[in-house]
Amino acid sequence: MAMPPATVLIADDHPLFRAALADLIRRTPEFELVGAVEALDPALSLLAERPCDLALLDLRMPGMTDLSVLSALRAKHPDTKLALISGNLDSEAVSGGLKNGIVGFLPKSFDPPVILAAIRLILSGAIYVPHELAALASEPESSPSAASSDEPSTLTEREREILTMMVAGASHKEIARSLGLAEITIKLHAQRIVKKLGVRNRAAAIAKAVRDQLVDPTI
Questions:
Q1: Residues of the chain with CATH 1.10.10.10
Q2: CATH topology for 6-137?
Q3: Nearest-10 crossing angle of helices 157-167, 202-211
Q4: Are 186 and 175 a contacting pair, CB within 8 Å?
């Protein structure tokens, strides 16, 4: 006897991505789309009417004010697996999401076959987090004082290496190629560098590195 299709709910406020993901689910016979909505509140309404096997929730959408809402959602619908989808590659969101009950994190940049493979893994009972995000999410967090911009020594050896190449003018793609890493990994390291240096973006991190002589670009 054939297994019934797994039911999937999508909540994402980006209309093009939501429509594309909904179409992908509809065209996959082993899945059934329960609904595709633009915010957390209508998602909650749908779940109240019909609990589903998996809810794919946008990290940045109306109603998703804090990752703690995931714990409440998990408590109310314990049989529904929760996974975050996001265009923001944020290892802290992965860590926070896992602590609040998610069992998956899917970057929106993934190709459709990878998204489907990840969903299948989640529905099979596994926790799915991309390797690059999992590695960074599992790193121990520095204390606030240690992570301040006055303590550049908190940069790891790899982060210093990447910052040096950034100062030398290399793009994320060029750094990834040089180090034999995925570009997404370099982007995630760059995010952590920006945070540790207490600046707003990559350009400011480079400027601070040059001003404070944090790296030697001639190496």
A1: 152-211
A2: Rossmann fold (3.40.50)
A3: 90
A4: yes
